[in-house]
Amino acid sequence: MSDSPQDGTEEGPERLYVITSGRSSASNGLDLVTLIVARTVPTAGMQPEHAAILSLCQAPLSVAEISAHIGLPVSVVSVLISDLLDEQQVLTRPPVPPADLPDLSLIEKVIHGLQKL
Amino acid sequence: MVQEKSPSGLPSVAVYAWLIPVVAAVTVAGLVEPSVFAAAVWIGVTAVGAVAGAAGVAVGRHRQVAQLREESRGQSAALARQQEATARLADSLVPEMLTRLRLDEAPEEVLNWLTARWSGSYSGLPSEFQQAHWAMLRTVMDAVAAEEGLRDSAQRALVNLARRMQAIVHQQARELREMEDRHGQDPAVFGDLLRIDHNTALTGRLADSIAVLGGARPGRQWNRPVPLYSVLRGAMSRIVGYERVELSTSTECAVVGPAVEPLIHALAELLDNATRYSPPHTKVHLTAAEVQSGVAVEIEDGGVGMSEQARRLAERRLEQAQQGIDLGDLGETPRLGLAVVGRLTQAFGLQVSLRTSAYGGVRVVLVVPQQLITSAAEASGVAHGIGTFSGPRAASQPGQVVSRQTAKPPAARRLDEAPQVVERTANGLPQRRRRERVAEAQAPAANARPAEGTQRPPGEWLTAFKTGLSAEGTSGGDDAAAPRGEQ
Fold first, then answer.
1. ipTM > 0.95, yes or no
2. Which residues of B, range 180-219, sit inside 8 Å of A by Cβ?
3. Span B38-43, average pLDDT
4. Each residue of A90-103: pLDDT tens digit?
5. Domain locations in chain B as residue ranges
6. Closest CB from A58, A74, A96 relative to B459
7. Architecture (CATH level 2) of domain B224-378
8. Does B194 score more than 80 pLDDT?
9. Which of B47, B150, B416, B453 counts the highest number of beta carbons within 10 A?
10. What is the domain class of A16-116 according to CATH?
């Protein structure tokens, strides 16, 4: 409902609860770093937000990135993505687990070893 | 005149009639004795005198009657003129004066006009009569002007109050949107914010309705066209049962700025009626289609429908509202919906019709005329900000921001953006793009506050690390600076 003259764009008349049909959280466990990949391309008659997510996610993107791109809060994006998941239009991939990292001391040892060469 | 002759003939006969007994008496006198003769003469003289007296009185009365008739003729002519003047007063002067006053003409102007009309109509009438009429006109005029002034000030006060409420509601909505962005990651808080947001929108609609009833515009002004899809969802935003509204349209047109708010408001009132007067488990279908005369928006509910009588009543209410809303007619529990819709449709040339739906409910068709419709390409009102970047990113990517802002793609055409995003990754693995994005993202972090690099989404730091490792040997510069900032 705001005029935001500073960036030349104005928000639309619709509120977020209409975009999510009143839901505030997704039932499935999406988090900020879950990667989303589209399985289909947007079709006509789709809700614009769904279409935008599908076209953004032709390559994998995290939920946080999608949220930043389309300018909607993460909860809204999660709800929208879970809609798409239910319709099997997107796939989720778990984020790269941090535990896969080699031990920091090991890396330091390798670096030192390399520098000594 | 014919009537006049016969009474005037009677006395002339009476004047000569008294000669008959005189002649008879003289004739008889010659024949009878002198004593009798004297008595007869005396009687005759007396009779003649009596008859002459009676005739004199009769003549006097006759003159009097004629004079009275003359007077009465003059009076009835004057009465006819006065009647005529009174009829003119009632038939033309007063109604015309009221019309002028209702059209917001100043009382002084009406008075001038009245004086001009006056001199022609009242010539030759007694001044008391003229004064009485003039006094009556002035009284009526003062009363009506006072009433109009009262209504005007009531409406102005109403609009003023509505505007103040709107300002508060808009401010609250703006802040709520900021809070929604801020707390978007916490579903519980976010859910609560959405509920508050919804109630704020309902309050805003009520304030808009009050402004419309006060004869003003519903609310905020939109500078640019807004896609019809956003307008329809904007209308849904303002009703209680928005979850029950099923929106399906593939129309890509947009609504010109000045008509956006009235259209949203009218549609919100119609949707509110549709959801309110249909069973809670039924859906309300909202569709829009382009037609020859513009865009037809249809609202169809699964309620019990309206009887023909109820439909006529509703249409009459709409028509009445189109002619102007009298605040006094609203009653103690005002049903604002149709009054507001009627007022808005009249002011903005929208057409609304009520029919029985195929589902058995009510089907409302609202036709938006062609001149209020524009192509979606001109609509830059990015409803929900899809495709726009958040602040910090925009600052770090001036080139891209400019290209996006100049393109200003509407929400419905967001598909065009896909190539832009994918292009960067088109000839390589997705990771290539991520590396690029990480490097971009860290630029401000490295420049402004390197210590806060940890605020980046957690999934990215590993990539940044890998990027740094792979870039370390090949180049210095920004790419190399990035991982250092990260570590």
1. no
2. 180-181, 183-188, 190-191, 194-195, 197-198, 201, 204
3. 85
4. 888 876 666 667 78
5. 2-125, 224-378, 391-486
6. A96
7. 2-Layer Sandwich (3.30)
8. yes
9. B453
10. mainly alpha
